[in-house]
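Review form for a predicted model. The reviewer records the input and the model, then writes brief findings.
Reviewer: anonymous (R2)
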Amino acid sequence: MKRNVLTAICLMATLSACGGGGNVNLRLYPIEGPIKNSHPSEIIAVKVRNQTAASADISFVLPGSGKKNRCNGTWTSVAPRVTEKERGMSLTLQSTGGKLTKSVKDLGGVNNGEVYAVCRDGTRVQGHFITGSGTESGTGTVTDTLGNTYKLLF
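Model under review:
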């Protein structure tokens, strides 16, 4: 199986694990700020939907007093790629003349991603995460405009 196909399958497996079947594996853990101080054991489940190979819509609810503060946004992950081109001369019957091939491959290593969401009350939530190539897990840090910092794990 080609490496880029395998990587795409792994990314899809990651996304299905995050949002498939009602099982939410993406979580925010308050580690600093007002939410940690008032709700120290709060775990914020992030729902993932409309996933593609490298991004998805997200929604979650920030805890607080009064109305629930629903947030909607997107996360995306970028897998680095390299394009290889080959040019040459061919004297075979199947491809007499010039030979030109092009292939695109995903590079192994760590993939970077970003999260961004806006809440009903205008709070903005944004952060960065990393995943290993071919893995179904990641880690990162997310902050909001209310002074909270979260650990993102999936």
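Findings: The chain has two helices and ten strands.
Further findings: The radius of gyration is 21 Å.
Recommendation: see findings above.
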